[in-house]
Amino acid sequence: MGKYFGTDGFRGEANVKLTAEHAFKVGRYVGWYYGREHKAKIVIGKDTRRSSYMFEYALAGGLTASGADVYLLHVTTTPSVSYVVRTEDFDCGIMISASHNPFYDNGIKLLNGNGQKIEAEIENRIEAYLDGEIEELPFATQEDIGRTIDFASGRNRYIGYLISIPCRDFKNIKVGLDCSNGSSSAIAKSVFDALRAKTYVIHNDPDGTNINRNCGSTHIEVLQRFVVENGLDVGFAYDGDADRCIAVDHRGNIIDGDKILYVCGKYLRDKGQLFGNTVVTTVMSNLGLYKSLEREGIRYTQTAVGDKYVAENMMENNYSLGGEQSGHIIFSRYAATGDGILTSLILMEACVEKKSTLCDLAKDMKVFPQLLRNVRVADKEAVKENRKVQEAVCRVQEALGSEGRILVRESGTEPLIRVMVEAASQDLCHDYVRSVIDVIEAEGLALS
Predict the structure, then answer these.
(1) Which of 164, 177, 148 is closest to 60 using CA atoms?
(2) Sequence-separated (6 or more) residues with CB below 8 Å from residue 170
(3) Separation CA 15–CA 193 (nearest Å)
(4) Which residues contact 396 (CB under 8 A, 6 or more apart)?
(5) How far apart are CA 94 and CA 122, in angstroms?
(6) What is the pLDDT of residues 284-303, one digit of tens each?
(7) Residue 227 near residue 248 (C-beta atoms within 8 A)
(8) Over 174-205, what HEC string results?
(9) Which of 199, 223, 252, 385 could covalently link to 192 via disulfide, CB atoms 3.0 to 4.6 Å apart?
C-alpha cells in the first residue's frame, strides 16, 4: 500500500484526508498520463455522498485541464463504471465512493481500460505527483482543452446488460432489496422489476448524508427483519457503491460472501462453468467454506485480503469465481470486478434453476464460530513488528491447532488492526481475541 492509495483507492474523510485539491491533482495526472499519445477519454461515476459532487467537479477540472474528455455517469455503481470502461473504449474509469464507510468519508477508485483496479505502478506515480516529486505538468491550451459530456446513457446500457444475464425470469418471487441509500438506489429495482420479480425496496432515498447509516450490507439485521416480517422469499443488501452483496434467506438467515461462494461454486460446477474447478478466496474466508468445498470436490486458493488481489489471481489463472466474506464476489465471465447486483442475480438464477430456496442451497455449509475485533492504532507497522504481539499470536495458533485459526492484519483503508479468530465455540473465539488485544493495549500500541 502507498501513502495515499490503499487496497481500495485513495480514501479518507472529505476535505480532511482527501481534499478537493487532491482530486484536482489526481485528475491532472490521469488526464496527462493517458493523453500522451492521443486525446484521453475518462469516465466518472459517483455514489450519493454529499462530497461526491465536489470531487466529481474537481476531478473533471483536473482532467480537462490536462486535455482529457470526461464522460459523466452521475450517480451509479462501481461495477457499472467498470463495465462502461471495458465496453466503451475508455482509457480509464474513476469511481468516487468510500464504499461502506460513513457519509463524511469519500474515496477515489481508479480503473484501467480493462475495468480492473489500476496498476500499483500508476498509483505510485500519482502519489509522487501529489507530493511534488514530479515536475509540474503542462496545461492543455486552446482546442486541446478537454470537455465534459453527459453520459447517463452508459448507466442505462449497464442496466440492460444486467437484465440480459439471467437465463430465466423471477416471476412472482418476492425479493427484498436494501439499497443502503447508495448507488444501487438508481439501478437495482429497475433490474428486478424487468425480470418480473415482486420487488420490495428499502433505503433507496439518499439525501447525501444517510448512505450506509443503519442500513445496507454492513447492517444486515435490518434486511433480516424486513424479509421475515413481510414474508419475502429472499433479500439482498448492497453497500454504498454496490460492489458487494450480502443475502438473507426467507427465514432471515444471513448468506454472507463465503456462503455465496459455496452456493455459486456448486452451481457453476454443475453447469460446467467453474474453470479449473477452483474458487478463489481470501485468507479471511471461514474454515467452514474450505471444508465444504473439499467435501464437494471443489478446489480453492487463497489471496491476501482485498478484492483487487482476488481479481488478479482470477485473471492470471482464468478462474471464473472468487470473492470475499464481506460480499465482494467476482464472476469473471460477466464482470471484471465485484458486482453486488450481479451477485444477487446469479443467486436468484441458481434458486430458480434448482427449484430450491436459498436456505436449502446454503444449508450444508457449516460455519465455524468467528470473531473479528478492530483495534484503532497510531502505527500499524509497529503492531505487526512488536515481539510480544507476535508471541501472543503464536500462542493462540498453537492452542487452536487444526481446529481453528487466528489472523491479525492491518486494514487497507483505516488506521486499524483487525484480530480474527475461528474456533470451536464463540467463547473460545472471544478469549483468544481478547488475549491478543490485551497485549496490544499493554504495549501502548492502541489508541483510546
Answers:
(1) 148
(2) 192, 195, 196, 197, 348, 352
(3) 39
(4) 406, 421, 432, 435, 436
(5) 14
(6) 899 999 999 999 999 999 99
(7) yes
(8) EEEEECCCCHHHHCHHHHHHHCCCEEEEECCC
(9) 199
∠ Cα 236 306 317 (to 5°): 100
Q: For residue 412, what pLDDT is reported? A: 73
Nearest Cα residue to 27 out of 61, 4, 74, 69: 61
Rg (CA), the chain: 22
* Joined grid coordinates for residue 358: 436459498
> What is the average pLDDT value for the chain, to the nearest integer?
95
pLDDT exceeds cutoff 70 at 1: no
The pLDDT of 75-97, averaged and rounded, is: 97
Q: For 195-233, write each residue's pLDDT tens digit.
A: 999 999 999 999 999 999 999 999 999 999 999 999 999
Assign 323 a pLDDT band (cuts: 50, 70, 90). Answer: very high
Cα–Cα distance measured from residue 436 to residue 428, given in angstroms and rounded to the nearest whole number:
13
Residue 113 makes CB contacts below 8 A (sequence gap 6+) with: 85, 86, 90, 91, 92
**CA-based nearest residue to 344, from 98, 120, 77:** 77
16 Cβ contact list (under 8 Å, min separation 6):
none
Catalytic site positions: 99
| 19 alpha carbon, distance to own chain's centre | 22
Q: How far apart are CA 174 and CA 253, in angstroms?
A: 16
Strands (E), 23-145: 41-46, 69-75, 92-96, 105-111
**What span, in angstroms and rounded, lies between the C-alpha atoms of 310 and 303?**
6
Nearest to 26 by CA among 151, 122, 135: 122
Main-chain dihedrals φ then ψ at residue 191, nearest 5 degrees: -65, -50
> Would you state the pLDDT for residue 391?
95
**HEC-encoded secondary structure of 93-124:** EEEECCCCCCCCEEEEEEECCCCCECCHHHHH
Give dist(CA 217, CA 422) in Å, integer. Answer: 22
Distance of CA 350 to the CA centre of its chain: 22
